Amino acid sequence: MLKLNDFKNNSNEDNLGIILFIIGIIFLLITTYTGLTKIGLWYDELYSIAFAQLPISDMLFIGPKDVHPILYYLIFKSFTKILTFLDIGVVGKIVSLIPIYLIGILSMTKVKKNFGYLTAGLFFLCITSMPQLMIYSVEVRMYSWGLFFVTASLIYSYEIIKNNSNLKNWAILTILTIGSAYTHYFSAVGSFSIYVLLFIYLFKNNKEQLKYWFLSAVISVIVFLPWTLIVLNQMATYESGYWINPITLNTLISYVYFVLSPATFFIQANELVSPTILGSIFLLMFLYLIYKVRDKFAIASIAAFIMVPIIGALLSLAVQPCFHHRFLIPSLGCLWLGFSILLAKMYENKKLFYIILCFILIIGVIGCVNFINIQTQDSTDTEIEMNSLNKVVGNGNVMIVDFFPIFFELRGYLLPNNHYLSFNEDIGMHVKEVINDPGIQSEIAGGSKVYYIDGGYENIDEVRAQGINLEEIGFNQPLKNNSFKIYKINI
Q: Where is the chain membrane-spanning (predicted)?
C-alpha cells in the first residue's frame, strides 16, 4: 500500500505515479461527496431501492422475473440491514461507491506490484475520472459492482500468467467470475472475454496450466447453471420486443464517444452520443499508443473490452436488440488498465507522455464539472417530484396502480406510507372491487382517500366504464422517463 516515505525512496517515475493516485483519490472524494449529498434518482434506481426493501423471500420470487441477476440486490439488501440509520437512497449510493474504493486498493497492491507505481496511479486516475465512471460510481444499480468483478478478474488473470502454480489465484479468479455472472449478463460477457484471451495465452505459452483453466471454467458454469433456466425464461419473456432500439452504425459510433467523451447528459433510454473533438483526439491517442508500444497484455486488456460491444451488437442483430451503452461500464476497467500500461511505457518520451497526461486531466476536470451539474439537477428534480407528490397525495391513502414498476417506485421511495395495490389486467373490475372491499371502506370512513395511478397503459376508459368518477390530480413531474398520471376517485 501507499506509504508516506515512498516519495523519498522512489524514482521520479514512481513519485509521479503516487501523485496521480492522490489526484485519483481527490476525484473519488468529489464523487463521493456529490453522490451522498445530491440524491438524484431515476426510474431504474428507484426500482433498485424498492427491490432492496423487500423481504428476502419476495426478492427471490420477483428476482427471476427481472432482466438482471440478483447478486447486486442481495448486496444492497445486506447494507440496508447494516446502515438502518441512513436514508435508503444514501445507502444505495454508498453500495455503488464501495467497488471503486476496492479497485483503488487493487491499484495500490496488485497493479503496483505487477506494473509499477506509474501504471497504478494512471489506472486509478482513469477509474475515478474518465467519462461515465463518476456517474456510474454513484448510480444505484449493479454496474460499479460489475466493473469491480471484471477488473479484478483481469488483474488476477495477470497474476496467473506470472505465477503459474498458484492455485489461490485460480480460486480467486473463479469466485470473481461467478460474482460477475450473477451481477450483470454483460459483466459475464466481460469475464468470458478474459477467459477466452487467457485460454489463447496458455495454449500458446503454458499448456500445463490449461487443466486449471478448464477446472475454473467448469466450476463457474456449474455454479451459474441454477440461473440458466431463469435466463432462458427471461429471454422468452422479451422475445416479443424490448425497449432497446435496433443497433445501427450510429449506435456503434455512439458507443465510442460514450466511452471517450466527457458526459454532458445521462443516457436513460435510446439517446445517442454525438462525435466530439475531445473524443476523436482521445481515440487517436489510443490508436497511437497501441501502434507505438505494442505491449501484449495491454492490447489483450483492450481487446477484452472491445469484445463486449462486439458480442452485444452481434446478439442484438441475430436475436433482438439487447445491448445498451451502460452495459459497457463493467468492462471499462479492462480498457483503462490497458491504456495505463501503454501510457506508462511511453514515460521515456516525456514530451508526448505529458501531452497525453494533460489531456487526460482536462477530460477528467470537464467530466467532473459535468458530473456535478448532472447530479445537482437530478437531485433537484427528485426533490421537486417527491415534495409535489407528498403535497397533493400525502400519507395514509389507498393507491391503486396499473403498472408494477410505478407501484414499486412510489411505494418504495417517492410516496411511501400509503396502502398500495397493483393490478395488470381487468383494471376497471379490480378498481371497483377494491372500492367496495369492506376493509377499504373502513379506511375511507377513517379519512383515507382513494387514488388510481395510470402508469401509461391508458386504462382510464375501462375504469370509467365501471361507473367510477375519476378526477385527474396535477403535480410537478420533472423526472425523465417516469411518466404516470394520478386520479382521485370520488367516492
A: 16-34, 82-103, 115-136, 142-158, 170-200, 212-230, 242-260, 272-290, 297-319, 325-345, 352-372
pLDDT of 12-64, one tens digit each?
Answer: 999 999 999 999 999 999 999 999 999 999 989 999 999 999 999 999 888 88
Contact in structure between 281 and 359 (CB atoms under 8 Å): yes
| Residue 216 reports pLDDT greater than 80 | yes
From CA 352, how far away is CA 285, in angstroms rounded? 10
CB atoms within 10 A of CB 150: 33
Measuring CA to CA, which residue among 95, 180, 119, 27 is closest to residue 345? 119
> Is the pTM of the predicted complex or chain greater than 0.90?
yes
Query: What span, in angstroms and rounded, lies between the C-alpha atoms of 296 and 272?
Result: 32
Looking at residue 109, its amino acid is T
C-alpha dihedral (400, 405, 408, 414), degrees to nearest 10: -90
327-338: b or e for each residue (b if 16 or more CB lie within 10 Å)? bbbbbbbbbbbb
Q: How far, in Å, CA of 85 to CA of 94, rounded?
A: 13
- pLDDT-based confidence at 236, cuts 50/70/90? low
The neighbour count for residue 187, using CB atoms within 10 Å, is: 31
Q: What is the bridge-based pairing of β-strands 398-401 and 485-490?
A: unpaired
The whole-number pLDDT of residue 443 equals: 95
Q: Look at residue 241 in the predicted model and tell me its pLDDT.
A: 62
Please, what sign has the CA dihedral across residues 77, 146, 21, 117? positive
Give residue 6's pLDDT.
59
